[in-house]
Amino acid sequence: GEDVEQSLFLSVREGDSSVINCTYTDSSSTYLYWYKQEPGAGLQLLTYIFSNMDMKQDQRLTVLLNKKDKHLSLRIADTQTGDSAIYFCAGSILTGGGNKLTFGTGTQLKVEL
Amino acid sequence: EAGVAQSPRYKIIEKRQSVAFWCNPISGHATLYWYQQILGQGPKLLIQFQNNGVVDDSQLPKDRFSAERLKGVDSTLKIQPAKLEDSAVYLCASTRREGTPNSPLHFGNGTRLTVT
């Protein structure tokens, strides 16, 4: 099955850019997602990229996909304290039962003043 | 629209006891998922329903875990008997279809289970 790995922690200063990285093993992933989880809450979809794209920009968020290296990144511009959370990347594989998401281990982003 | 509702929010039980979690998905969402999230890890899919049928339960420990969605709406997840390693947050998610970007997964806030 799919394995998805992320670094555990990232600390940035408010106003700087944050880059969260993710590597995955299954090149047949159809879509790759970024989710945000705040303390005590469920996961919130931030953005996604289709596997035949290499970049997607959505306001402060930029997703880069390097299919050759199976590497996905999320860049948050002008990081704010409200961006402090755990960020999960997830790969999606089409199976007989529909889309199956495999989540990474999560990266905790801490934004300091 | 109302979000995915889960209850209880917290549960503490002793090992070998039984526990049940409840989920009410967003109205009209045919697909429902139960995920287990152990502290420090990403969510792991336990079971996926399409209406009242099971689509994928390959990672559900069937000797102790069971889930049902009898009328294709609400769902319950049961653990009997619980083990220490079942301590985790149990997340329910729903989607109109099978979680495509045009129909993303909506997650509830989860039930935090502590087994002592």
Brief account:
By secondary structure, chain A is mainly beta. Chain A has no helices and eleven strands.
Content-based structural category of chain B? mainly beta
Kindly, what is the distance between the CA atoms of the first and last residues of chain A, rounded to a whole number of angstroms? Answer: 40 Å
Helix content of chain A: under 10%
Report the average pLDDT across residues of chain B: 92
The sequence of SSEs of chain B as H and E is EEEEEEEEEEE
Task: Explain what the structure shows.
The complex is a heterodimer of chains A (113) and B (116). With 113 residues, chain A is an all-beta fold. Chain A contains no helices and eleven strands. In chain A, the strands form two sheets. In chain A, strands 2, 4, 5, 9, 10 and 11 form a six-stranded mixed β-sheet that branches. Chain A has a five-stranded antiparallel β-sheet with strand order 1-3-8-7-6, with no helix packed on it. Chain A starts with a strand and ends with a strand. Chain B contains no helices and eleven strands. Chain B is globular. Chain B has 116 residues and is mostly beta strands. In chain B, a hairpin with a 6-residue loop joins β7 and β8 (75-79). Helix content of chain B is 0%, strand content 47%. Chain B has strands spanning 5-7, 10-13, 19-24, 31-37, 44-50, 53-56, 65-68, 75-79, 88-95, 106-107, 111-115. The A-B interface holds A 4, 31, 33, 40-45, 48, 50, 88, 90, 92, 95, 97-106 and B 4, 31, 40-45, 48, 50, 55-56, 91, 93, 97-101, 104-105, 107-110.
Topology:
The complex is a heterodimer of chains A (113) and B (116).
Chain A: E1 4-6, E2 9-13, E3 18-24, E4 31-37, E5 43-50, E6 55-58, E7 61-66, E8 71-76, E9 85-95, E10 98-103, E11 107-112
Parallel strand pairs in A: 2-11
Antiparallel strand pairs in A: 1-3, 3-8, 4-5, 4-9, 6-7, 7-8, 9-10, 9-11
Chain B: E1 5-7, E2 10-13, E3 19-24, E4 31-37, E5 44-50, E6 53-56, E7 65-68, E8 75-79, E9 88-95, E10 106-107, E11 111-115
